[in-house]
Amino acid sequence: MLFNYKALTNTGEKKDGQVEAINVDVAISQLQKRGLIISEIHSQDEKKLKFSFLSLFNRVSNKDIVILSRQMATLFQAQVSALRIFNLLGSQTENPTLQKYLLQIADDLQGGSPISAALRRYPDAFSNFYVNMVRAGEESGKLDEVFSYLADYLDRTYAVASKAKNALIYPAFVILTFIGVMILMLTVIIPKIAVMITDSGQTVPIYTQIVLWISNIFVNHGIFVAVGTILFGFILWKYSRTESGSITLDNMRLNLPYLGDLYRKLYLSRIADNMNTMIISGIPMLKALEITSSVVDNKTYQTILDSALIQVKGGSSLSNAFGQYKEIPNIMVQMVKVGEETGELGSILKSLANFYQREVTNAVDTLVGLIEPVMIVVLGVGVGILLTAVLMPIYNIASQG
Q1: Which of the four pLDDT bands, split at 50, 70 and 90, describes residue 164?
Q2: Domains located in the chain, CATH noted
Q3: Intra-chain end-to-end CA distance of the chain, in Å
Q4: Exposed end of the chain (fewer CB within 10 Å): N or C?
Q5: What is the pTM of this model?
Q6: How many whole angstroms separate alpha carbon 151 and alpha carbon 144?
Q7: Strand, helix or coil at 4?
Q8: In 185-205, where does DSSP find H-type helix?
């Protein structure tokens, strides 16, 4: 089987390529023997599966995985065999994609595959973080606890991320509605009024000329504006899929006024929560950093974690590695240092995760409270300018008449 991989050397140099192996564990072992730190690896078959027709219309949601994890934790506590668990849950789940995955995993288990190796075949449902947590549970014999940790973790991350996303839905809807109304006015109403204004022969104010000019562009060249907008959006999307584009957009996201601070707290919460969950499950620090880097979902923090991994591997403490970056606040660096000195790093990271989750929740609540009045003011000013530009000349015409 052929695997694509992305990795780092001990000097921090990025490498990517392909490796041939019978399974992903052997592939990882081969790459680690070369001194590489793996940030991403998947087989060609997994990539095809990820973009299959079925997965597009029957995606496995976070809610599905949370429920599944809780059910598996309960069944493992009841000492039900893994094979029976996956067969049982596979026959009961309502999501057809997840049902297919679970029954195929049961077949893999019957063939002698470990649970983690079977789960790894379905990256669109089970993340690298999830698979490695299960692998740690297999090695420690605490699969029931691990699945409980996973369900709690996914619940927390989903709640924080969805709260942040939902806060942006309302302003996006209002802005799109405003743009739609403005386009309707510029293409339907303004052209009719423009005829009246130009036929009057009076001097047209500069702000009215600008509005009439914009209206003329939309009426006579609207198709080019639409095509240009779509083309620009497509180019931006393609650029965001490249390495440099992803880095640029992630940096821009962190530097946005107010929202940048919200995103920063969201990523710090994710880092602390990921590492806490893995460390209390018995996953070594180096592996925890490696996995957290692959799931943090921001290139800036991914680079920081990759660098910290190399430094910790070379004998540095985690707090010293984090302390070199302004993106990691001093309070987090100092608390990690205390955790290292007292041997309570897991509980310290849990406290940090809870702290930043509260900060994200408070920031989102504040943002939601500010959005409505700000939107009302902005929309009022926009509509007022447009109406003033067309009504003032009409008023002058009526006055002269």
Answers
A1: low
A2: 2-50 (3.10.20), 53-126 (no CATH), 168-401 (1.20.81.30)
A3: 85
A4: C
A5: 0.67
A6: 11
A7: strand
A8: 190-200
Q: What is the rounded distance in angstroms from the CA atom of residue 73 to the CA atom of residue 71?
A: 5
| Look-up of token digits 């080019």 | 224
C-alpha 122/C-alpha 113 separation (Å) is 14
pLDDT, tens digit, for every residue of 332-377? Answer: 999 999 999 998 898 899 899 889 888 888 887 787 777 778 878 8
Note whether 59 and 101 are within 8 A (CB): no
Query: Would you say residue 257 has pLDDT above 80?
Result: yes
289 token code pair: 């950093």
Are the CB atoms for 274 and 288 separated by under 8 Å? yes
The order of strands in the sheet holding 14-20 is 14-20, 2-8, 37-43
Tokens representing residue 373 in the block: 């009045």
- Largest Cα–Cα separation, the chain: 93
Query: What residue type is 100 in one-letter code?
Result: K
Q: Count of alpha carbons within 13 Å of 87, Cβ hemisphere only? A: 9
Q: Where are the alpha helices (DSSP H) in 11-140?
A: 24-33, 44-50, 53-57, 62-77, 82-92, 96-110, 115-119, 128-140
CA R_g for the chain: 28
C-alpha neighbours within 13 Å on the C-beta side of residue 92: 11
Q: How do residues 233-252 score in pLDDT, each as one tens digit?
A: 999 888 888 888 888 888 88
Closest CA to 296 of 169, 392, 157, 395: 157
The DSSP symbol for 60 reads P
Residue pair 164/262 in contact by the 8 Å Cβ criterion: yes
Output the pLDDT for position 341.
Answer: 92
Token representation of residue 265 = 């707290």
For the residues of 119-176, what is the DSSP string, one character each? HTT-TTTS-HHHHHHHHHHHHHT-HHHHHHHHHHHHHHHHHHHHHHHHHHHHHHHHHH
Distances in Å between the Cα of 161 and the Cα atoms of 165, 177, 360 are 6, 25, 9
- Quote the CA–CA distance of 335 and 81 in Å, as a whole number: 41
